[in-house]
Amino acid sequence: MRRILIGLGVTAAVALSAGAWFAHEHWQRSLPLLPLAFPHEPHASVNCITCHHDYQDQSPSVSGNRTCILCHKQSPALAARIEADFHQLCQSCHLQRLQSFHASGPVRSCQACHRDTAGKSYP
């Protein structure tokens, strides 16, 4: 009888943990995207599909992100502005993730945060 109770207790603990993990993941993905302002004017010469690839083929791709990063790192002034924006908009969230023992950087994939509620990636 004791083994049965222990088995039921372990099963209940696993089920509750899985449910909590699922609820947390669902809650995280329901949050709005980061409050980033994107100026389209300086990017007018770039084909929209370079970044908005999801409208063309419905599959996430890192090529658009690599394109953005390569351009943005070429300008020291722009790189400094992006760093300042990170400290203002992003750092608090990264620190919260670190304090709750989640991966918090360095950022290797923009899609890690830029997702809609269905999990679809956006650049």
From TrEMBL:
Transmembrane segments: none annotated. Residues 35-114 form the Class III cytochrome C domain. InterPro entries: Cyt_c_III_dom (IPR020942), Multihaem_cyt_sf (IPR036280). SUPFAM superfamilies: Multiheme cytochromes. It holds the Pfam family Cytochrom_CIII. The keyword Phosphoprotein does not apply. It comes from the Bacteria. GO terms for molecular function: electron transfer activity; heme binding; metal ion binding. Keywords: Electron transport, Heme, Iron, Metal-binding, Transport. The keyword Magnesium does not apply. This is Cytochrome c3 family protein. It comes from Pseudomonas denitrificans.
